[in-house]
Amino acid sequence: MKKQLQKGFTLIELMIVVAIIGILASIALPAYQDYITKAKWAGVLAESTPVKQAIGQCLQDNANMGDRCATIGAGGPANIDLADYGLAAIPQPANTGESTPLTIAGTVNAGPATAGIVAVTITANANISQTPSTPDTLIMTSGLDASGTRLVWTNTGTVPNKFVK
Known about the structure:
By secondary structure, this protein is α+β, with helices and mostly antiparallel strands. It has one helix at 11-61, and strands spanning 103-107, 117-123, 137-144, 151-155.
């Protein structure tokens, strides 16, 4: 009697392959979406770099008085303007579909340990936010480190830190 050769795959083999592909896709898709969101926020953060540099220089020159370093083009308290530090206007995102214009707000807290704070606020629209119905807001707040000698920026907004680190 002749033994018949198998032609093709059995149903079990095909089901195993489909299950493996499904498992790999369920792991890869969320990671890919996070990667895309992080890349979009990286672009916005890069565009905010001149703002942070100008604020840092202004704070250094003005005894960390945050309210003095939160004005562009109008002359703030003590006639200090970020235009004097090379920032003539707030940069607009290259892709306007990704975020709204940057805004700057300055406050001054009492006491040397909590001297001047300037917050740079960026609100994303549905194209960059993880949840389109509630756009994320990135609030980069300046402050001094524990030694009181170095300016550090922290995220105090609704954007998860994994996207802005």
